[in-house]
């Protein structure tokens, strides 16, 4: 009986303060929706960067005149460096063909000779497509005998990594702020409800109700705030993701576990914030 009474009283408490309930659920929904939106943004930025980083290449230029055995030795050394996924050899002749495709000029016809050196184009593994990892790999390659130069877009990579870090910090900070705002809002709502029902609480105390018995309905209210906010946030986020994929960007991704995460976060925030409020404000009455 005590369980059903607790749930019944918790629901009654919501109906007694309808405006506070509406504002709290609305704000919790908005906060969780924005957190979900930032998570989706983070995931898709990371996905987009992963696709762009697949195109990152490190070109290793060799001495103009090398015997095939020496080239094979360099290739073996490169294969042994951690982080290198695939190596493509570009001979002098192939380099001349690539030059002609890019610039529309036959270097052999213009200069009467082919001054372009042979090279290796290196493709990196997933975890090594950032500025610091490529810099470390390049230093190892430069020490190999027969290598004259290692070229990659170092400036662009440094800039990309710097700004992406800033973006991730901003998204994380905004998400934390939204969680704090949600906790404060539920905390204040529970406080107002406790204050409005202070006479009932005093009567329950006089007739012998335990502290735990008095606390439970308020925990149900906090749980309901989190549950309602989480479900509504999931619903709105799903609708936004669906419409965005349908009409704006069909490659948008949103893993389904994120919806469960938002619901769980709503329940956790509702429970924790109601606990804090109950412990703080019931102490003045009990």
TrEMBL record:
The keyword Signal does not apply. The chain crosses the membrane at residues 20-45, 166-186, 223-244, 256-278. It comes from the Bacteria. InterPro entries: ABC3_permease_C, FtsX, FtsX_ECD. One of its GO terms (cellular component) is plasma membrane. It is a multi-pass membrane protein. The keyword Membrane applies. One of its GO terms (biological process) is cell division. Keywords: Cell cycle, Cell division, Cell membrane, Membrane, Transmembrane, Transmembrane helix. Residues 56-150 form the FtsX extracellular domain. It is found in: Cell membrane. Residues 174-282 form the ABC3 transporter permease C-terminal domain. Belongs to the ABC-4 integral membrane protein family. FtsX subfamily. PANTHER family: CELL DIVISION PROTEIN FTSX. This is Cell division protein FtsX. It comes from Caldithrix abyssi.
């Amino acid at each position: 009986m005590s369980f059903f009474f607790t749930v019944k009283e918790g629901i009654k408490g919501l109906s007694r303060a309808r405006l506070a309930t509406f504002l709290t659920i609305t704000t919790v929904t908005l906060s969780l929706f924005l957190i979900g939106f930032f998570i989706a943004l983070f995931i898709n930025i990371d996905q987009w960067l992963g696709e762009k980083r697949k195109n990152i290449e490190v070109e290793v230029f060799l001495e103009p005149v090398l015997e095939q055995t020496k080239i094979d030795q360099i290739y073996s050394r490169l294969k042994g460096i951690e982080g290198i996924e695939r190596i493509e050899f570009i001979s002098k002749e192939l380099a001349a063909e690539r030059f002609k495709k890019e610039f529309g000029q036959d270097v052999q016809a213009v200069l009467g000779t082919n001054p372009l050196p042979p090279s290796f184009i290196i493709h990196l593994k997933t975890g090594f497509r950032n500025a610091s990892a490529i810099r470390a790999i390049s230093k190892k390659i430069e020490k190999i005998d027969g290598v004259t130069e290692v070229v990659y877009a170092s400036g662009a990579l440094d800039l990309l990594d710097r700004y992406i870090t800033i973006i991730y910090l901003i998204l994380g900070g905004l998400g934390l702020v939204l969680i704090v705002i949600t906790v404060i809002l539920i905390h204040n709502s529970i406080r107002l409800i406790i204050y409005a029902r202070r006479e009932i609480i005093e009567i329950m105390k006089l007739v012998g109700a335990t502290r735990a018995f008095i606390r439970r309905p308020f925990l149900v209210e906090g749980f309901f705030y989190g549950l309602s906010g989480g479900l509504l946030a999931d619903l709105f986020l799903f609708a936004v993701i669906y419409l965005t994929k349908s009409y704006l960007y069909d490659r948008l991704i949103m893993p389904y576990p994120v919806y469960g995460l938002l619901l769980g976060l709503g329940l956790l925030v509702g429970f924790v914030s109601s606990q804090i409020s109950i412990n703080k404000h019931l102490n003045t009455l009990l």
